[in-house]
């Protein structure tokens, strides 16, 4: 792939390739934009089929973090890491320590945390080599339950828009991916009286959710065609695409997965079909709000949750812009984030003697 062309097209700052022969580490740290502050974004460990696929994932996820951090009102830029490997087989102390040393070498330009395939335990090892890691034990911990809390509030805002009432009681919700976020989300939905239809590629994850939350299981490729009120993608990205859109029978798409739209045009098609799409980086910003609280030096769960519940208002704001300007919600969200980056960028360019 033409890496510099891609970086130029989307205005990336830095791409770091990290290799260590002792541990077998192959990691890519992408820093998209640091106008608002140091780049913060989690680390994903995944079995990519090609190196290009891993590079593209790191770049797309990093850019998403720039928009997410801006939309969440944080003074943070956007970055992300991918580690190429199987999270079930390839983890070791040396791998995460080698990675931690690369994060440290960036001197605080990039701060890392958990993402798919990574746990708090892994980040505890990374911490041995770097000061620039959040989501730690005894501090903010695993961001996933808080991400789920934000998704839950965002879903309620969508329900208010579509059904005139924010209650999710009796609503049929199809959840794709029952990992850290998806399973926590199912608990909020079950407690409110929603009917859950779920799927995952790991049987163990399915078993727990089906048992605890009276959920119905469907095969992974069947989840798109479920007739439901809300489809909630909580696995990987690009699941809203040319193949899946014709199958969808939902009123709302609201889930935690990053980069849900395969291409921007898919957001346009959803609007034409009358499906309300809650932009991924707005509805799933709870995790980053939570880990960013750790940077204040005195993490308080209640304060973090209060901020995260405001995702409800942010989703309503995006819907308002979308209706007023007659544009898809993903563009409305981009405008909201870009406006903040531009204004803050200008304000912060004023000279102040330190
Ligand atoms: N953990 C967090 O706080 C945040 C997570 N996200 C995003 O939310 C999504 C889920 O994150 P986590 O729950 O942390 O990851 P996770 O790794 O704990 O869970 C992902 C789940 O998706 C399942 N999965 C993968 N491919 C699938 C498929 N084709 N069909 C059905 N299930 C499939 C996996 O088996 C796994 O159980 C990711 O896209 C992540 O980037 C976004 C913001 C914060
Ligand atoms: O929630 C996290 O783990 C940190 C932020 C992040 O990587 C994300 O929101 O995707």
From TrEMBL:
GO MF entry, a single one: nucleotide binding
Q: Which SUPFAM superfamilies match?
A: Aminoacid dehydrogenase-like, N-terminal domain (SSF53223), NAD(P)-binding Rossmann-fold domains (SSF51735)
User: Could you tell me which CDD domains the record lists for this protein?
Assistant: NAD_bind_Leu_Phe_Val_DH
Q: Which UniProt keywords apply?
A: NAD, Nucleotide-binding, Oxidoreductase
One Pfam family assigned to this protein is: ELFV_dehydrog
Q: Which residues form the active site?
A: 80 (proton donor/acceptor)
Q: Which residues bind NAD(+)?
A: 177-182
EC number annotated for this UniProt entry: 1.4.1.9
Instruction: Cite a single GO BP annotation.
Output: amino acid metabolic process
Occurrences of domain Glutamate/phenylalanine/leucine/valine/L-tryptophan dehydrogenase C-terminal (ranges): 141-349
Q: Is Cell division found in the keyword set?
A: no
Question: Which SMART domains does this chain map to?
Answer: ELFV_dehydrog
* Leader sequence segment: none
Annotated InterPro entries? Aminoacid_DH-like_N_sf, Glu/Leu/Phe/Val/Trp_DH_C, Glu/Leu/Phe/Val/Trp_DH_dimer, Glu/Leu/Phe/Val_DH_AS, Glu/Phe/Leu/Val/Trp_DH_bac/arc, NAD(P)-bd_dom_sf
The record's top EC class is: oxidoreductase
The record's similarity note reads:
Belongs to the Glu/Leu/Phe/Val dehydrogenases family.
Return the protein name: Leucine dehydrogenase
This chain's source organism reads Koleobacter methoxysyntrophicus
């Amino acid at each position: 792939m033409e890496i510099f062309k891609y970086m130029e097209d989307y205005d990336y700052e830095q791409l770091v390739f990290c290799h260590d022969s002792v541990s077998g580490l192959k990691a890519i740290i992408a820093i998209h934009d640091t106008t608002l502050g140091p780049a913060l974004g989690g680390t994903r460990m995944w079995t990519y089929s090609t190196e290009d696929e891993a590079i593209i994932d790191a770049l797309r996820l990093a850019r998403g973090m720039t928009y997410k951090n801006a939309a969440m009102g944080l003074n943070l830029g956007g970055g992300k890491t991918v580690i190429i490997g199987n999270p079930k087989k390839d983890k070791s102390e040396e791998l995460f320590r080698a990675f931690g040393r690369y994060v440290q070498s960036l001197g605080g330009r990039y701060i890392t945390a958990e993402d798919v395939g990574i746990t708090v335990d892994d980040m505890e090892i990374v911490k041995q080599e770097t000061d620039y890691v959040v989501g730690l034990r005894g501090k903010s911990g695993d961001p996933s339950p808080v991400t789920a809390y934000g998704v839950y509030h965002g879903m309620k805002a969508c329900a208010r828009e579509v059904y005139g009432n924010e209650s999710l009681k009796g609503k049929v919700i199809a959840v794709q991916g029952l990992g850290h976020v998806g399973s926590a989300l199912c608990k909020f939905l079950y407690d409110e009286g929603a009917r859950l239809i779920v799927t995952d590629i790991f049987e163990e994850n399915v078993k727990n959710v089906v048992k605890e939350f009276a959920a119905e299981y469907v095969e992974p490729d069947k989840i798109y065609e479920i007739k439901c009120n809300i489809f909630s993608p909580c696995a990987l990205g690009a699941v809203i695409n040319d193949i899946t859109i014709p199958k969808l029978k939902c009123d709302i798409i609201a889930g935690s997965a990053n980069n849900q739209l395969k291409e921007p045009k898919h957001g346009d098609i959803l609007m034409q079909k009358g499906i309300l799409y809650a932009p991924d980086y707005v509805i799933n910003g709870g995790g980053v709000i939570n880990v960013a609280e750790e940077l204040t030096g005195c993490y308080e769960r209640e304060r973090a949750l209060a901020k995260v519940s405001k995702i409800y208002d942010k989703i309503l704001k995006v819907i308002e812009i979308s209706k007023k300007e007659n544009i898809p919600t993903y563009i409305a969200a981009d405008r909201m984030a870009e406006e903040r980056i531009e204004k803050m960028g200008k304000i912060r360019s004023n000279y102040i003697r330190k």
